[in-house]
Amino acid sequence: MTRQVAADDAGIAEAARLLRAGALVAFPTETVYGLGADATSEAAVEAIFRAKGRPHFNPLICHYCSADEAGEDVVLGGLARRLAEHFWPGPLTLVLARRPASRIRQLAGAGLSTLAVRVPAHPVSLALLRAVALPIAAPSANRSGQVSPTTAQHVLDGLSGRIALVLDGGPTEVGLESTVLDLTGEPAVLLRPGGVPLEAIEAVIGSVRRPLPIGLAGNGRPTLQSPGLLVSHYAPELPVRLDARMAGADEALLAFGPAPPGAGLVFQLSGRRDLGEAASRLFGGLRTLDAEGRRLGLRRIAAMTVPEHGLGLAINDRLRRAAAPRG
Ligand code: AMP
Ligand code: MG
């Protein structure tokens, strides 16, 4: 049985107790709900992969309550410190060299010599991380390949019975996963667009290398650099069609800005074409259209175009993966 409790002081204390005992606890962050486990425990980390059905080659992000804490497990160079000062706590994950004395289990980092770390900007995550006083490995709290959760109910929809507890802190604010930046070489490489726009990062550290957008990049296999970045991901059950200007009779429409006339089932990401609003509503919109669309016998989700700048980079990345051929 998975219990859902409010993210108040008592709930956070219970979650911390469970995490220290090696159990799995889902908790809100500013990006999406995370599925947390003690990153120093082999059994707890293995339980994350089992509960999610996540392939072992896909490394986990370790969460900390401060940059200094993260510095216990990875080498924080000048560039990393500068980024941490600007963006932590916040939706930026840094891939850095692992310290030889790192407390993190190899399994959490998929056996790589690097480790992905971040300090989340959510009062509940920070209170929980302080109370646990351990690094917490936390991927998104969904079954592998499915749409990420932005509410406690989304977590239960996918993981009920598979985890001990979900802390309910209401809907998450950013709604998209963190931006992942590889700092192990020069220049820095954007591994995943996310909640911190690339332009904001480049304003601090100069030019960042960006990979080709999904679909142009290749063969659907994960790259060596970021082993977990599978092309098909974030996938609802209904197929997704991109760059829609109108919806067919058998399609549900994911709208950005005024919906074309004649569309039946519509989920509006942002009527005023605000990228932040659209990002926060994206995963919920995909879930709603998937469930409602299937109930109505529709065959597909048609997604309108979102501009390729700011948070639009991350929104388009998730939509392309949702639309990619399923593995
Ligand atoms: P998730 O926790 O589901 O949001 O996914 C974490 C993302 O970070 C995945 O795409 C991983 O491939 C990426 N990641 C985690 N650790 C590393 C690492 N050491 N090197 C490169 N990418 C990583
Ligand atoms: Mg995920």
How would you characterize this protein structure?
The chain contains 9 helices and 14 strands. The chain has 327 residues and is an alpha/beta fold. Strands 1-8-2-3-7-4-6-5-9-10 form a 10-stranded mixed sheet, with helices on both faces. The chain has a 4-stranded parallel sheet with strand order 11-14-12-13. The two termini are 31 Å apart. The model is unreliable at 220-224 (pLDDT under 50). Residues 139-140, 148 line the site of magnesium ion.
Q: What's the arrangement of secondary structure elements?
A:
Layout: E1 3-6, H1 9-20, E2 25-28, E3 33-38, H2 42-52, E4 61-63, H3 67-70, H4 78-87, E5 92-97, E6 114-118, H5 123-132, E7 136-137, H6 152-159, E8 165-168, E9 179-182, E10 189-192, H7 198-205, E11 240-241, E12 251-255, E13 266-268, H8 275-295, E14 300-303, H9 312-323
Helix pairs in contact: 1-5
Bound molecules: adenosine monophosphate (AMP) and magnesium ion.
- Shape, principal axes of CA atoms: globular
Describe the main β-sheet briefly.
Answer: 10 strands, mixed
Q: With helices defined by DSSP (H or I, 4 residues minimum), what is the helix count?
A: 9
CATH fold type of the largest domain: DHBP synthase
Mean pLDDT: 94
Small ligands present = adenosine monophosphate, magnesium ion
User: Would you identify the CATH H-level superfamily of the largest domain?
Assistant: DHBP synthase
SSE pattern, N- to C-terminal: EHEEHEHHEEHEHEEEHEEEHEH
